[in-house]
Amino acid sequence: MLTADRTRTQDASARRQEAAAAKAAKPSLLEPGLVESWLAGRGHSAFRGKQIRRRIFRDRLDDASRWTELPERLRAEIVAELRIFPFDVEEHRVASDGTEKLLLRLDDGHLVETVLMREQGRRTVCVSTQVGCAMGCVFCASGLLGVTRSLTAAEILGQVLAADRLLGDGERITNVVVMGIGEPLANLKNLVPVLRAMTDHHGCAIGARKITVSTIGLPKKIDEFSALDLPLSLAISLHAPNDELRTRIVPTNKGTGLDAILAAADRYVAKTGRRVTYEYVLLAGVNDAAETAHELGRLLKGRLGHVNLIPMNDVRESGLSAPGSPATHRFAEIVRGYGIVTTTRKRKGADIDAACGQLRLDRVRREAGPPVVALDATSASAPV
Ligand code: SAH
User: If phi over 0 gives left and psi between -120 and 50 gives alpha, with beta otherwise, what is residue 301?
Assistant: First the structure.
């Protein structure tokens, strides 16, 4: 049984490697600047770039052989040499509340997740920015295996388009939250061109204000983000009102500290005039006490920002859980008492493991199979 399992896993991984090798030769049209340099390199006019972009972003027509306004030779070259999506959809789940989740297989075999959420009038995509995460927040599934690498710009932008392709004819992606797997500001270099493509009128044409980047709080990177010439929204994952508690929940806080994070947030406000969202994942018995709510209120009082309380989504291996709704309600009321707008996030897609990173984590563990030692022992006694 174990041997058969291993053979299947080897077959699957060999197939994946072959497919990856075949595709690796074909760059993605979504990579920043690629269309322009590719067209120039083959002696085509630059205005073809606009036509290509229109087909991909506006018309959602992914088959380049049908881009009939392009000369036939150019279409054939595109089909032979380029592709749009730098990943395959490995799994697609739909929750009872309409939330959809894509598990994406990147060319090098790694997995990331993208979520599409539907609310009245709003279609929000949640994108990942890294394979795994280095931050190690104790309640989060994404950080349990550490970080492998950052995503390329095409891999991030491709997620927005992949979610867009799930929508009906009259629907469009209206909002983007950069809150999937990974720490976005640790991959700001690749994220910035994506933010530009998302807001570009010839690209996704999404309003910058409707794009929210969520960070654990990297002060220097927050300053770089604030300096961008786009009115993007900033969310900071606070989770605690003092360093002692925050470091227990967010290990990287040890080297940063709340003061530096809040100072960077204040500079964002001064520079942009926009309010910051302070995210606070409520963990029963850890950061949900009445006194902690008062401390949070005192810390944020007078700052231009609001608090978004997030009841924790279950992550099996964390041993932590969300408090019930009375405790959540009481916490919110106390913070509101300090004049701070406080909302509680609605749970989405709970029945499809929409908790950030859970689907990927389960799949990675399954593919890794039993420990190597056990496999070797089996193959020694039962040759393949
Ligand atoms: N690294 C970034 C962005 C990814 S996490 C950050 O920390 O902000 C996006 C948000 O989801 C963060 O506020 C994070 O704390 C929250 N989150 C992660 N795991 C969660 C879980 N199990 N339940 C509820 N919220 C979670």
Answer: beta
- Put simply, whether the predicted model's pTM sits higher than 0.85 gets the answer yes
Structure-block tokens of residue 51: 């036509």
Residue 14 in this model has a pLDDT that exceeds 80: no
Distance of CA 123 to the CA centre of its chain: 15
What is the tens place of the pLDDT at every residue in 232-261?
Answer: 999 999 999 999 999 999 999 999 999 999
Q: How far is the CA of 153 from the centre of ligand 1 (A)?
A: 21
Q: Of ligand 1's atoms, which has the minimum distance to the CA of residue 180?
A: 4
Q: Annotated catalytic residue: which of 126, 133, 137, 356?
A: 356
What is the residue with the minimal CA distance to atom 5 of ligand 1? 179
Q: Could you tell me which residues come within 8 angstroms of residue 364 by beta carbon, excluding any fewer than 6 positions away?
A: 111, 145
CA 179 to ligand 1 centroid distance, Å:
7
CA angle 197, 136, 125 (to 5 degrees): 30
Helices and strands (H, E) in the chain, number of each type:
13, 12
- Residue 373 has what pLDDT? 40
φ/ψ of residue 113, rounded to 5: -120, 150
Q: Any catalytic annotation for residue 113?
A: yes
pLDDT of 379 > 80? The answer is no
What pLDDT band is residue 6 in, cutting at 50, 70 and 90? Answer: very low
Task: Say if CB 222 and CB 264 are below 8 A apart.
Answer: yes
> Are 198 and 211 spatial neighbours (Cβ–Cβ below 8 Å)?
yes
Across the chain, where does the E strand assignment appear? 87-94, 100-106, 111-119, 122-126, 130-132, 147-150, 175-178, 211-215, 233-237, 276-282, 305-311, 342-344
| The two three-digit tokens of residue 162, written as one number | 């992949």
- 218 in contact with ligand 1, CB cutoff 6 A: no
- Ligand 1 neighbour 183 (Cβ under 6 A): yes
Q: Where are the alpha helices (DSSP H) in 279-348?
A: 290-300, 325-336
